[in-house]
Predict the structure.
Amino acid sequence: MLFKIAGFEFRFQLFSPASIAIFAIFFLLTFGGVTIDQIQVGGGGAVNINSPNALTTNILIFSVFGAIIPTVFLSSGVLRDFGFKTSELFYSRPVREFDFVLGRFIGGFVITAAVFAAVPIAFLIGSLMPWLDPELIGPTVLWHYLYLFGVFGLVNMWVVGTILFTVANFTRSTVVTYAAFVGLLVLYFVGLGLSQTQPELRDFFALIDPFGFNTFGEMTRYWTVSDQNARVVGFEGVMMQNRLMWLGIGFVLLVLNVLTFRFRRGGAIRLGKSRQVAAGATHAISEIDLPRATPRLDGGAAFQQFLSRLDFEVKGVVLNVAFWILLVLGLLNTIPGFFLGNEIYGTPNYPVTRIMVQVIEGGFSWLPFVVVIYYASEVMWRERRFGFSYIVDATPTPSWVFISTKFLALCVVIASLIGVSLIAGGLSQLVRGFEHIEIGQYAIRGMIGMIMPAALLAALAIFAQVLFNNRWLGMAALLVYQIVSIVMANIGLDHNLYTYGNAPGAPYSDMNGYGHFLGIQLWFYAYWGFWALLLLVFSYLLWSRGSLTPVLKRLAVLPRGFANAGTGLIAFVAVAGAISTGGWIYFNTNTLNEYNSSNAVRALQAEYERQYIHLQDIPQPTIVDTAYEVEIYPAERRYTADGHYVLENLTDEALDTLWISYGAGTTIVGHAVEGGSLTSEDEDFYLYQFTLDPPMAPGEQRDFDFQVERANPGFRNSGNVTTVNYNGTFFNNGESMAIIGFNDNWRLTDRQERRREGLDPIDRAYPLEDESRWYENGITNSHYVGFRSEVCTSSDQTAVAPGYLEREWSETDERGRERNCYEYVMDRTILNFYSWLSARYDVAERTTDGVLYQVFYHPDHAWNVERMLEAGEDSIGYFSEHFSPFQYRQYRILEFPAYQTFAQSFPNTIPFSEGIGFIANLTDPSEIDYVYYVTAHEAAHQWWAHQVMAANVQGSTMLIETFAQYSALMVMRQEYGEDLMRRFLKYELDTYLSSRGSETIEEVPLYRVENQPYIHYRKGAVIMYALADYLGEETVNRVMRRLIEERAYSSAPYATTLDFLRILREEAGPEHEQMIHDFFERIVLFDLSVTSAETTELEDGRFETTINVEARKFVADGEGNQTEEDIDYGIDIALFTCSPDDSGFGSDRVLHFQRERVNETEMTFTIVTDEAPLWAGIDPYNKLIDRNSDDNLFRIAPGNCASADQSETARLME
Amino acid sequence: MLEIKNLSKTYGNGVRALDDVSLSIPKGMYGLLGPNGAGKSTLMRTLATLQAPDRGTATFGDIDIIRQPKALRATLGYLPQDFGVYPRMSARAMLDHLAVLKGITSGKERKRVVEGLLEQTNLKQHANKSVASYSGGMRQRFGIAQALLGDPQLIIVDEPTAGLDPEERNRFHNLLSEIGENVVVILSTHIVEDVADLCPLMAIMNQGKIVSQGAPGDLIAALEGKVWSKHVAKPDLPALRARLNVISERLVTGQVFVRVISDTDPGDGFEAATPDLEDVYFATIAQGRQAAAAA
């Protein structure tokens, strides 16, 4: 009987439309992901398309979305009989309950497994497709497919399936089951978000993650590319625990279902429905006196019907438990974010409204989509579901009343869902003691940014439901639409004019408010609003009123619908509106601006390279002096510039041609070179050729003058973030100022993209030993130049450029506008890289030791301005004392809008994003003060970049970024003490290790770093800190000092890492040779751990601790393959009374800290201390690059630090 | 009043639900009798503007039902064969809502109509209870109450008495016959007594066709002297069926009571029986069966 039932269930579902459709959807999704480069999941870079890693990621991701599969097939096993009203039929059969429930479960689970098998099958077939890049295809290992399908696919289906089967069985309600499905997903994503903000709970999340995402992440955290291509996650450790635990939980649930299942329960849980009103004393009708009332059928009646119907529809969704569950889920989805999610590197921000809305936007990125699809089917099918449709359909109420009120009911659901979270956002601000609540911003960004797009989608969803006449098909149609639009965007069909409901993004900035973005978005939403109106008109005309009618028949009578004057008029308005707004948009995006899809841009870049690469290294004059007159018009988002260069022929041959490039989008008003004339121009690529006649002799100087404009007319399809804004302009000379020669920025660098365009791969950097490149600047193609600039802006703003303010005046331009003008002059040469800024600023300033420290900030963002000034003083003070004198008399920080989040160091001038420090809440002293750190890092660039510039070879970013990291760490250590540096270092170490797996080409040793941030920032910080620890800060600073003495302002040659290593070896002495070699010239990893430790009390009352350690050293190649080597290092061995991980940790918790020679794999240390230690550690502060930095500490005895608050490791800023 | 001409409807699965149906229905109660699946509900839905026919016309007074559905709906009362209700909604609220949908826009008037109908259908004391909690009879009375909203001139009730106990059915009949005095009421049913008790005119429908129509009395009269009955033993039945036109067989205390149609006395112990409407119905249906078998 059991297997009969299971078999019936299996056959019943196997050929159902649902199983075929879902199989097809998952097959196509996976197949598309594998075979379309643009949407690869889990591969990318040097990781194979069909690597075990990519397969695992596919199975994991699709198993989360595939949770719908068991929802459909397993829960329907117990719900179907109610839906079909066959429950009594089945339940009265002589079938044992045990057989029935288990049989249905087994049948349903087998079909679930069969449908989910679409994912590995599609992956396998996809990976065999001939058009895939053979370089990125690894061997096919069939058991990987079976194994991963089992441990992730089947177990995840099992977990979700048993949970939802239980919900379905106990509630016997489809709605509650689907709500539970959505709830599970929301909870899961909340948990996933949480797990990413709480790194100290990683192990815990890895253990409990029901889908195994965190488990997989934890098991493979430090896998290199070669690991990802060859290995599958073993069934061991936390992976085994997690999978077995969830298998067990599912099994327990199943047993529970089997034991408690009773046929007679049959729907008893439908609350309050069981009681029937007794027929009572109802008598035959004696006499009929029908009340008469003549119906009205005019517009007034229709309006009243509309209101009544709206009330009815809205109540229909609102007076339903599912709606309230949804609201709670929505809140759960955002509220944690209001309190935790806006931290940057563990330090909270002030909860400004901008951030709160951002959290809500993040939380509702996909939920409205699900809600709209579900509710559209719900409201469109409600009358039919309750069997009431014939009654209302036979009333004289016009059809548009039904469709429009259903649409509005959907809008009410969306608006409530988002509105509740917006209100919760405001309340959270109050709870956090922040009173500057911008209600208007909540309302406008909520309405335009979130409710509007969902409402547009609602119109589409209703249309799909009407068109397909089937709620499942209608829902599937929306899903397919979503997939298609993602694919379209990925293959370059990305114009918002044909991507339903899309509008360009509208980032918000406290400085610039809505900027120009709100208007752009409104144009697009107006356009799509007209389309939505048209869809609703079609929905109303095609709607199956009464019996369901095949779509072709309904389409056939469609034209007649427009004969109605009202309908015709509305359709006309919709079409006319869509055409006129669409036309206006097209005019802006494609006529005023140039529209190129992302693919077209790539092709253009490739074309530029093919055509002009021969210009790359041809001898050209060099810029030696610059002067600018810049006019910024913030209200018009426009600037003009007159530039004057002095060019010098620094080559030893006569030059007869000058090539000039400009950044894309520059309007070139004019340009001329002394003794030369324009001979050819390529306006597509902004490239101009001047013939120098007579040719420019070696050593000769000539003037070059140009007039350019950066106009931002209208708006674009995408990329509307411009450098000139109403408030908060920030651009550098790379954008529109003339560039000598080939413009390297146009080149494609990504290997895959190059391959796709048929270009050979290029190296990321010239070899370190290529001496010809030692005479080239690492970041520009000039050397050091003179600089001065006049800059004018509107009368309410301040404009700033590098240099010292020489004059300041007001003038009235030709159109009668008041202008604020400034002239900035550099008194020494600088790199040919500088920026202009303009905004309504407040200024804080102070002068220390002859240096003027200034912060130009948005008046609402005064919180950390003092801290920035202090950090500037401390940093400039330390570097001046230990490295070399500060070359400038001022140090300025300028805030710019949060459209980008970085800080960048120009000579004595540092633009600093409003998003990374100005709103940080530093009031809790235990949090990481990243504002201080970033300021110190940028200050350090005044030395590392602006005094010592690196040559254009491998290792250049080590001299610039790694040394800035080192410098900032030294200032931090001076400010916060050595014992608190651990959390910085551990974070840097973990980031380095986990980033290795994303390496696209090859990991190189630090001294050859090829602009790889995870090496020059992350590994560099750890290595330099260890170097200072092993050699002494003073020794390392002496090396720095000597490097500056040798190479400051040197362009012949520029500095290389070889210079640094030479000086370092001289200063460190031969005893450190091995360490220097390991740190800089090889990729060396350690694996240090305390395997056990034990303390005994001695007779004299002191404590003796025996620590057993294991220490290994590995050398890795560029792919991550490791070879073990003998170890012989001095390594810290320590005893503590508190874990260094604990926020209560400090110097007073250190009982013993001694560097010991470790030259065997297993060693034992015996240490006597006065106090009983609780923790033992080897390299406890994570100074060395340790593959697993979590096992360096060992708990000897329980106890705690009795500290109040938790703090966590912070990522530090570039 | 209601003129139906050549209505045909074939469903996607090939079922001919309406096959060239033509009827002329005057004011008063009109019974549409037929077995399940005869096409009655399709015809009812077509007349209620809920389904478009493939061919044919239907007019009610001046209103072309197919082309002017909205005009018909304004004067239509429809009680579908099987209807559900919304959970948590009282009869009063539901009627009020439907009254608005019917076009009774004045609040005062609506209140009067709703209360009057609740009174007339004897639902007043349960008017604030959820319709979902009603018994079958009460639910049908609610159904007729909503169908009567807005003074309809055409009332279509589809299988209204299915599942009602005799008392409820009786009550329902009284209600219908009172209403049927001034308007067109089409009562579709497969229960012969419903028609016999109520309808001055009727039609019998089978396999999408109108197979017989007229006044019940006339139809019965046509069978006068042609119906014969007898008690037979079960084993004799097949032979009897082969020989005679058996229109009904009823098992009574172990024996089968059969009625046959025959122009002459079939002899063999058959007694003449007084024909009733049921005989008309069975005889008509049996004809259809024979025709189908012959084809």
